[in-house]
């Protein structure tokens, strides 16, 4: 069996969007019996060691996704060696990550997540941090859609 593909989701704080995406994709891959490693990180240090935002935990929990045990960590350069695909939640995260890459191979690992749904559009997952329950629910639905696409992609022969 080939080694598992390693996927990292990255947002700013690692307490809203990226842990939600991690929980959603982890569930889908388990369901489909796809062998992969899924993790998440933030570009900023503000929330290192924190659990996801309570609103994130509640929104995910409503859909049967339990992320209450996750802890935030900050992206560091060595993550380029630990992951095969690094999905940025928005253009600011994308630029930050691409700017840290030292080789073309590392830079090529960084992708804008919503490009999986809308190639080349430059669209980002909106940051729900300043919003309420409705924003968190909207972000869950968007992440659920794009994670379906990512899971389909991982079922392609080149990833197996
Ligand atoms: P995230 O949301 O990047 O989706 O985790 C945020 C979380 C915290 C902050 C900003 C965005 N903050 O400014 O602390």
Overall description:
This protein has helices at about 15-30, 55-60, 80, 90-100, 105-110, 135-155, and strands at about 5-10, 35-40, 85-90, 110. The chain has a single domain, classed as Response regulator (Rossmann fold, 3-Layer(aba) Sandwich). Helices cover about 40% and strands about 15% of the residues. The model has no long low-confidence stretch (mean pLDDT about 95). Helix 1 packs across helix 6 (about 135-155) and helix 2 crosses helix 6. The radius of gyration is 15 Å and the shape is globular. The protein is an alpha/beta fold and about 160 residues long. The structure holds 4-nitrophenyl phosphate.
Strand content: 5-15%
**How far do the termini sit from each other?**
8 Å
The small molecules bound here are:
4-nitrophenyl phosphate
Ranges where pLDDT stays below 50 over 5 or more residues in a row are: none
Number of strands: 4
- Helix and strand sequence: EHEHHEHHEH
The tally of domains stands at 1
The secondary-structure class comes to alpha/beta
Helix segment tally: 6
Question: By CATH's scheme, which homologous superfamily applies?
Answer: Response regulator
Gyration radius over CA? 15 Å
Under the CATH scheme, which architecture would be assigned? 3-Layer(aba) Sandwich
What is the CATH class designation?
A: Alpha Beta
Shape: globular
Topology (elements, then pairings):
Blueprint: E1 5-11, H1 17-31, E2 36-42, H2 54-62, H3 79-82, E3 85-88, H4 91-100, H5 104-109, E4 110-112, H6 133-154
Parallel strand pairs: 1-2, 1-3, 3-4
Helix pairs in contact: 1-6, 2-6
Bound molecules: 4-nitrophenyl phosphate.
Residues 11-17, 42, 46, 127, 129 line the site of 4-nitrophenyl phosphate (4NP).
């Amino acid at each position: 069996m080939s080694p598992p593909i390693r996927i990292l989701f990255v947002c700013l704080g690692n307490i809203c969007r990226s842990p939600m995406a991690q929980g959603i994709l982890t569930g889908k891959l388990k369901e489909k019996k796809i062998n992969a490693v899924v993790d998440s990180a933030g570009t900023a240090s503000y929330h290192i060691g924190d659990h996801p935002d309570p609103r994130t935990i509640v929104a995910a929990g409503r859909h049967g996704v339990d992320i209450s045990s996750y802890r935030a960590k900050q992206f560091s350069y060595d993550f380029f060696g630990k992951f095969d695909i690094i999905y940025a939640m928005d253009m600011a995260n994308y630029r930050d990550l691409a700017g840290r890459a030292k080789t073309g191979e590392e830079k090529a690992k960084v992708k804008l997540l919503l490009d999986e749904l809308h190639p080349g559009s430059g669209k980002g997952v909106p940051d729900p941090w300043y919003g309420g329950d409705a924003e968190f629910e909207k972000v869950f639905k968007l992440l659920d859609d794009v994670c379906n696409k990512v899971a389909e992609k991982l079922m392609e022969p080149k990833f197996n």
